[in-house]
Specification:
Heat Shock Protein 90, 43% helix, Arc Repressor Mutant, subunit A, two-stranded antiparallel ribbon
């Protein structure tokens, strides 16, 4: 994603949910336990593990339901509260789940075992589905304003996706190689065409 010439990085998990999960880990870690809070990033998920324990009698189901505030480190929780980093005690899990739902992500997995308390986010890109639907509608509108040359190029590339600019020009009437170059660039700008691979081994992909 870009804003002007600046690239804006997007995360495969909600930023607000990640923030809450990290604060939650800091507040509930058992600091007598030597291992640090661990953040493990894999290809399709992120795991946040802190060596904390749940209050006696509590389970993961307790965390997921309405419950009273019982931070493992109340002084740290109070410091975060006074600095404005958290709005209320005991609502960390609720805010994580809400942030995920609001941004179209699935609920992360929460787990507690002998190694600590786990928060596991699956990497997702829900905006892509929305973007694809929007692109389809936009493509239908754009299709009405395409030139005959652009339509001819798209039609030709559907059948011969590995064609070069020279081959396209030789097989279509009344279009020079420079004209092919211009129209290929224009079709890419419109989001209707994509180049996959290099000049020799690559091919053209029609985006529909």
């Amino acid at each position: 994603m870009h804003e002007g010439i600046q690239r804006i990085e997007t995360l495969p998990i909600p930023r607000e949910a990640l923030r809450e999960a990290l604060l939650n880990a800091c507040i509930n870690k058992d600091y007598a336990e030597p291992s640090p809070i661990q953040i493990r990033v894999y290809e399709n998920k992120m795991e946040i593990v802190n060596g904390g324990v749940l209050p006696d009698g509590w389970t993961v189901e307790t965390l997921l339901s309405s419950h009273r505030s019982f931070p493992y480190n109340p002084d740290i929780a109070n410091a975060f509260f006074r600095s404005g980093e958290i709005e209320a005690w005991g609502r960390g899990i609720e805010r994580i789940i809400t942030a995920c739902k609001n941004d179209g992500f699935s609920t992360p997995e929460f787990r507690c075992d002998a190694s600590g308390i786990w928060t596991i986010f699956k990497f997702e890109y829900p905006e892509r589905a929305t973007t694809q639907k929007t692109t389809q509608k936009t493509t239908q509108k754009i299709g009405l304003s395409l030139t005959e040359q652009q339509r001819a190029i798209l039609s030709f590339l559907k059948e011969y996706p590995g064609s070069t600019r020279k081959e396209i020009s030789e097989n279509l009437l009344n279009i020079t190689e420079d004209g092919v170059k211009y129209n290929l660039s224009r079709l890419q700008e419109l989001g209707l065409l994509k180049r996959v691979g290099g000049r020799k081994q690559g091919y053209w992909q029609i985006l529909e």
